[in-house]
Each structure stands twice: as structure tokens, then as C-alpha cells.
Amino acid sequence: MTRKENFLKGFLKENPLFVLLLGCCPALAITTSVENAIGMTIAFTFVVTLSNLFISLINLNEKIREFIRPIRIAVYIVIIATLVTIVEMVMEAYLPELYNSLGVFISLITVNCIVLGRAEAYASKNKPLDSIIDGITMGLGYGLALLIISFIREFLGSGTITIWKEVKIDLTGLYKALNIEPISFFKSSAGAFLVLGIVLGILQAIRNRKARKTKEKRVVKE
Q: How many distinct structural domains can be found in the chain?
């Protein structure tokens, strides 16, 4: 795999949420606004990228790798938890409103299966630079999924798009022009499940269509 392919994989081919279906709990809980999704994307990308880097560096040394092998998961979790604590402290100090909005889901990055999964499956077996690229693409790929879901939920649920604090796009005029009101259902947990299901269905339909076209081309060539 080239570094370009390594970078692009997290957006489409191996998207943590839309393909691997990992990290669904925070995705459904915090995507009530685009602002939340942006904040979680920054925090998550920071943690997964630096944890990949440190874990890759640890495993470069054969003696250290063999020494920590029996307790490697515990070591990885300590590294991840340290990074998450740094994120929490910075966010609480400088972005208290966002910190309160994301709540416990910042702390839960520590046990997010995406972060630990990349540490065990990729960073522990690859060089630091490749591990950094893997962390960035997984973080941004997950963030892209969060942004798509939050955009749909906030638009349908309140008619606004909150970019950051007071920076908002007010689309309620569109609802008034159509003589309808935003559907608060989409701000609920059930609405989150529905939006995720619809997006996954659309993406699967696209993949099926591409696979069918590829198969048809092969048949024609034969």
C-alpha cells in the first residue's frame, strides 16, 4: 500500500463508521450539531494520531516490544488515556461550552475501539510516519462521517447549522417558505439511528452499483 492509498483509505474504503461500523455510540450521541462533530473530530484525530505515533515508536525497539508483549494492551491504554486527559484539560480550560456539550464522550475516546484497534492492528506493526498517516486518515474519516450525520440531523431537527459558537447558518427561512417546521425527532436518539441507517443504505447502494458495473465490464471483456 502506497502512502497515498494509506491516507485515502480512512475516507472511503475503510471509513471507521460508514464501513467498519465502529464508534457508533458517540456518533449517535454527539451529532446533534455540526459544532459538536467538529470538536469531536479535532479531539479524536489528535488522540488517534499521537497514540499511533507513540505506539509505533515503542515497537521499533525489539527488546522493548518483547518486554511489553504480555501487557501491550494495558500499555496502549495508558498512552491513549494520557492523550485523552490532555485533550480534556485543554478543552475544559479553553472551550468549556464544547467540553460540557460533548460530556463523557471525550473520556470514552480512551476505550473507543477505533483508537485501540489502530494501535494493535496497524501502529504496532508499522513505521512511525505510516502510523501517523493512518491515524490522521482514520481521525478525519471518522470526523467526516460525524459531520455528515450532524449536518443532516441539525438541519432537519432545528433548521440551523452551528459551525462554531455564534457562527450559524440559519435555514429556518426555507422551512417558512415551504410552510413547514423543523422535525425535532431528528434531534433525538431514534432520529440519530434513522439518519445513520439511511446514510448506510445509500452508501451500500452506491457500492453495489459500482460492483455490478465492474462485473458487467468483466463479462463484456470475456
A: 1
